[in-house]
Write a structure and sequence with these properties.
This protein is of the alpha+beta class. Helix content is 28%, strand content 23%. Strands 5-15-11-6-8-7 form a six-stranded mixed sheet, with helices on one face. Strands 1, 4, 12, 13 and 14 form a five-stranded mixed sheet that branches.
């Protein structure tokens, strides 16, 4: 039979992955490697999760307490055991959106003896990735801040963490109380090791001062450098450092911290959600990409010979999803 009968092209070559024609493979590889880590924490709190198509369906995760319900363990009159009826999962539809930035390097500068030290395509891609992650970081903070107005998911300490002389201050106890409250609302134990504490820089400064005054941590690194311990109240500590310029291009810069509040955020994070969608976690980043759950890069020259520019761009198809708000708790207004 003709080849078209054996291998219909509509079936053989149909694909749900991104078309990478025209992308620079070497720069894309670099972009993928640079797509995690740094001063942004969203990747650490919202597991990057690959999806097979641009559109996807994900569960709105219920807590174990809701899922367990109330069951009768008594044996029926016929001797058969009762079956435990699971709660039907609640699903929501999502869609990965295409986001991207481009920049350029001056070819005439690159042609100089030390031009590569001034700037190259990799540095431009690095900046583009930072911009993409910065926008995701702002959205991530908005999800966490939304819990401050929900009853039962936030609390303010009776004594502020920067009280004069740190009198009657007990920051560790405040974090423990918050984690215990989050534990009950989520059904996830503090001892699981999956709870993370996000402490904005200004709050971290007050916490360092408190710990130094009380001499609660006396290891060399803390005494010499003021580095916070990696764990407090049995939860991993993160201090985000991201900043943002909110001014329009060409205008006077207006730089501020993204994490500029005096709140402390407790978040349940289980990275295994990226492989098993039944895993309970607070947030996730759904990413559609043909190579990996990360970024792709393109490179091209100007058509105009007088332009003397090499353009580069970085793009990603992704979406930040709130899977279970029960995995978020906020200690709000901890400073005076």
């Amino acid at each position: 039979p003709p080849r078209s009968t054996l291998f219909p092209y509509t079936t053989l070559f149909r694909s749900n992955i991104v078309d990478f024609k025209g992308f620079n493979r070497m720069l894309t590889k670099y972009a993928i490697q640079k797509g995690t880590g740094g001063a942004f924490v969203v990747d650490d709190f919202a597991p990057p999760t690959p999806v097979e198509t641009q559109a996807y369906v994900i569960p709105n995760l219920e807590t174990d307490l809701v899922r367990q319900g109330i069951v009768d363990e008594s044996v029926g009159p016929d001797g058969r055991l009762n079956e435990r009826q699971p709660v039907a999962p609640d699903f929501s539809e999502g869609k990965c959106n295409r986001r991207g930035f481009k920049g350029y390097t001056q070819d005439e500068i690159k042609a100089q003896p030390n031009g590569e030290l001034f700037g190259d395509e990799q540095s431009e891609i690095d900046s583009a990735i930072d911009d993409l992650r910065r926008n995701q970081e702002i959205k991530f903070k908005a999800f966490l801040d939304a819990r401050k107005s929900v009853s039962g998911y936030h609390a303010s300490p009776a004594v502020k963490w920067d009280a004069a002389g740190y009198t009657n201050v007990d920051t560790i106890k405040n974090i423990e109380v918050g984690l215990r409250a989050a534990e009950l609302s989520s059904g996830k134990s503090v001892d699981s090791g999956n709870w993370k504490v996000l402490i904005p820089p200004l709050v971290a400064d007050a916490l360092r001062g408190y710990l130094r005054t009380k001499l609660l941590y006396t290891d060399g690194q803390f005494q010499l450098n003021g580095i916070l311990p990696s764990r407090l109240a049995n939860a991993t500590v993160y201090v985000p450092g991201a900043m943002n310029n909110s001014s329009a291009a060409g205008q006077t810069a207006s730089v501020a911290r993204i994490w500029n509040t005096d709140d402390v955020y407790l978040v349940y994070v289980d990275p295994s959600f990226s492989k098993n969608r039944r895993t309970f976690t607070a947030l996730a980043q759904m990413r559609w990409n043909a190579l990996s759950p990360s970024y792709a890069a393109r490179q091209w020259r100007c058509d105009d010979p007088t332009c003397l520019r090499t353009h580069v761009s970085t793009e990603i198809w992704d979406n930040l999803e709130l899977l279970s708000a029960d995995g978020i708790y906020v200690l709000d207004d901890v400073l005076t």
